[in-house]
Amino acid sequence: MDMSIQHKAVNIEAQEAEKSNQLIQKFANKFFRLWPWLIVSAVLGVGLAYCYLRISFPAYKIHASVLVQDDNKSTDLGEASILRDFGLMGKSNVDNEAEIFKSRSLMEQVVRDMRLNVSYYSEGKVKNTETYGGRPVDFRFLVPSTDTSDIKTQYVLQFNKSSITNFTLTNNEQEYKGHLGDTIQLPEGPAVVTPAAGYAKWQYETPLTIAVVPVDAATQKYLASLKVEIPNKQVSVIYLTLSDIIPAKGEAILNQLIAAYMQANVTDKNRIADSTIQFIQERLRLVFGELNDIEKDIERFKTDNKLTDLTAQSGLLLQNTSEYAKQQTGQEVQLSVVQALEQFLKDNLNNARVVPSSLVMQDANFIALVQRYNETQMQRDRMLMSLTASHPSVITTEEQLSNLRIELLSSIASVKKGIEVSVSELKKRTAGMESTITTIPAKERTFLDYSRQQAIKQELYLFLLKKMEETAISKSATIASARVIDRAKSDPSPFKPSKTMILFVGLMGGLVLPFAISFGKDMINTKVASMEDIVNNTTIPVLAEIGHNNANQVVAVTMNSRQLIAEQFRSLRTNLQYLIPNKLEKTILITSSMSGEGKSFLSINLAATLALANKKVILLELDLRKPKISENLGLQKTGFTNYIISEGADWRTMIQGAGQQINFDVFASGPLPPNPTELLMLPKVTQLMEELKASYDYIIIDSPPAGMVTDAEIMASYANLTIYVVRHHYTYRQQIRLVEKLYHKQTLPRINIVVNDVDIRKGHYGYGYGYGYGSYHAES
């Protein structure tokens, strides 16, 4: 039992090895058949790759890095930092700044500042090349940039030969003449062309193409080529990478992007100072008007009452009340400021503005609240540069601002109440003092009231002026919270296209293409193209392979023939002798699936090959519907039909020799009968076959195709062996499956397949028939 299992395992391994060898042999045959095409295709592929490299533009990577001050990381507790690292909290400051670098608004500002929507190309022999630093002119429209954002056009500038300061712009065969520095009217609007840095070195006979694209398109182009990375979350360094075909241009764009970011950062920081200065200026205008009104009232009062010097009269009163007045003035100044801040916070129009914190210095809690409010306000503004107002982070920040405003108003109310209480107390004390000097005239008291109001307004006015100067000084010292580590610098060599990779792809594509085409043809081919097509569709053994008849001879096998096809027929003869060693088994039926598969050619040459072995052979032309043998051999058509339908006819008188061939007779088909099938079923046919077996060593029957009529099945009762002809690149694979059905039904006796018309130029696929006959490919 174990030996049987081992034997089966060995057989399976042998079959697998045989399949692998067949696949290798098939691939090798296909390679040797396609090698001329492989060379041509490889050369063509490399040539196309070279042409692609010739017309493509190399792209360079430009790198820069910026260090961002991350305030959040310096103030967060350890737990918050850990949560942020796991993505459970909002983005850190460096993440937000990275989003700003990728924002469309920042890149659009760079495009507008550098006019990147206008490109210049010089004409070359193979391709037009973009120029940057060496372009001869600058082109721009004179209308505002917002009015030219959607313009898409192209002009070709050609300098005049007579005067290089004159030029012609061409667009859609329309020409516009102009002079450098002068306004030229174009369909899109007035424009001007001015000399640039490369004007003196420009080859003036070379046309210059000026391409204008919409600002949005240019912005999107450069945003797509920009890469912003934060490789290490532990440090707040942002790495910027931009790809461009002109290194100098890419470096300029990246440096300008960083500069625009820095300026936006400083502008964002100065918003607090700007808001404070605006608030103080509004208060100064109001206080100045009130102070001016009081001074006019004093002037009018003195004029109306003819008063000149009231100092001596009110000296004692001022001396006694000066201390209270001074305290009351200070408190009222603070009360005025607090009231103004309260009004500022209650106005919904100021919800998006920062609160000036330097006006109230006495209350540390209030200053701390204002600082928190302003930081939250700026954080929301940064979020809105990369997020929408409906984002959860923005909504959370809005809620924080609302809560902080409530706290600010509550704090202001508390401070205000304290100041009001203090003012009220001071007023009571002042009233007490005034009640003791009832002897002072009413005019003196009125003048004293004016003087006190004037002192209050003057104190407030000077206080506001001082705060405005302090804020302005603070604003002038503002710097961006980022620092450039490495300015933009291009790589020395382009990163695409890779010459080695493109040439390699071209070479491999050229090598693969012939195989792909060949295998593709094999896949869509429905005809027999290889031995696998036969083996995979039938279990019928393949008896032999017959090559293509290059000489187009009817009889390819003669006594002295040494062609490959003759040797293949001799090999077929040898195989037949092994299949039918019994001398009583003389009859061979030859059929096929359809007309044109070489059945008659195989019948003639098999008979001739047997005859050369000193065997007496007769070939029966029983394809009564389409007889070809007698016509191909140049014989008379009198034969089988005449014998069957004639009473007393002798078949021996109708036998014809096959030309110069010895021992090779032919029994022609005779006239075409109206009922070939019924004719073959007559008892006289049986008598004829018995007599032929007694007279000949081999009887070869050329019958009609088995897949079309039943004649072959009728004659099969007289045959000992059936040769089924399959023609290379002619017989359909589906017909092989039909032969398999006949094989299992045993309708035809002992079926064997012979593959005909094998073209060795299209790849040999068989079992090795014909090997060793290389010297016989031509007549000796």
Kindly describe this structure.
It is an enzyme of class 2 (transferase). One of its GO terms (cellular component) is plasma membrane. The chain crosses the membrane at residues 34-53. Its EC number is 2.7.10.2. Belongs to the etk/wzc family. By secondary structure, this protein is of the alpha/beta class. It folds into four domains: 2-56 and 508-524, no CATH class; 60-263, no CATH class; 275-478, no CATH class; 531-549 and 562-763, P-loop containing nucleotide triphosphate hydrolases (Rossmann fold), CATH 3.40.50. 52% of the residues lie in helices and 16% in strands. The chain has an eight-stranded mixed sheet with strand order 14-21-20-15-19-16-18-17, with helices on both faces. It has a six-stranded antiparallel sheet with strand order 3-2-10-5-6-7, with no helix packed on it. A four-stranded antiparallel sheet has the order 11-12-1-13. A hairpin with a 6-residue loop joins strand 17 and strand 18. Helix 8 (311-346) runs antiparallel to helix 10. The longest helix is centred in the middle third of the chain and has 59 residues, at 247-305. The model is unreliable at 73-90 and 763-780 (pLDDT under 50).
